[in-house]
Amino acid sequence: MTTATKKPIFSPATIRALVRTSVVGVGTVWATVAMAATAVPDGALVSTEWLADNLNQKNIRVIEVSVNPGVYERGHIPGAVNFSWHTDLNDTVRRDIVSKENFEKLLSTAGVDDNTTVVLYGDTNNWFAAWGAWVFDIYNVQNVKLLDGGRVKWEAENRPLNNRVPEYGKTQYTVSKVNENLRARLGDALAVAEGKSEAKLLDIRSPDEFSGKIFAPSGVIELAVRAGHIPGAVNVPWGQAVNPDGTFKSAEDLKKVYGAVGLDGSKPIITYCRIGERSSHTWFALNKILGYEVINYDGSWTEYGNAVGVPVANPSGTVWAAK
């Protein structure tokens, strides 16, 4: 692959701002440079412009979490390390997230310590990067950001990519605590379906999946033998949380989107989809942007729809294996 020409560390807007300040003196200019290059934004998101201005900062670690094979290898944000969703952030034998011990090894190899700001991004609408943010939250990693718009926006803006795999000095990262309360289980979903919990279920799949018209999106391999949704759930497809360029809508607009189905943060929310990746994206919007109490059900429909004896809502009446 031909390595793309690397853009300057500062964006044109930043450079123009620095030039305007030059009349105050060289010392002021370079103080401004330092501030522009190191200030980490508040909140859970960083923009593509900010990241482009800060790629060379030693306390920033960019991590790609993509699901499509070869995406990282063909070209990635300069300096980014690769965490495979399939083999790094998930257990490779049983259906579970990566173990605490393996997660510590992963971050240690990537050179992450308690002073590192981690920026996650990925392909496929940032679904799997948001999954990464959720796993990082379970393992109580601080200073984690999501690149707003992900890989798609970075590439659309013709920002630099290269195929060099970086090497960082190994650390000894230790997980301080495990936040198991961020993860919903089958029993949590079933309690809502049976009216034994005040939590609200949010199904973020497509309307056709929710209604039971289809079992899963075309081409996917993880399936359930029952169609439909968990009784009591409301449906807000994940895409309603983003703008056309893939960035998240404003907090004000997000409140309107979810408030329209009765989700205002007054009660705990459980997000789910098919395997937990799309619902991680909505978990991020609700929890990290709006500050609502939200847990993600990563078992999602492939667990619930395959479970024996649980109630199912199937408005379309689609029957498995029917001719």
Automatic annotation (TrEMBL):
This is Sulfurtransferase. Pfam families: Rhodanese. The keyword Nuclease does not apply. The keyword NAD does not apply. One of its GO terms (molecular function) is thiosulfate-cyanide sulfurtransferase activity. It comes from the Bacteria. Residues 56-163, 195-313 form the Rhodanese domain. Keywords: Pyruvate, Repeat, Transferase. Gene3D superfamilies: Rhodanese-like domain (3.40.250.10).
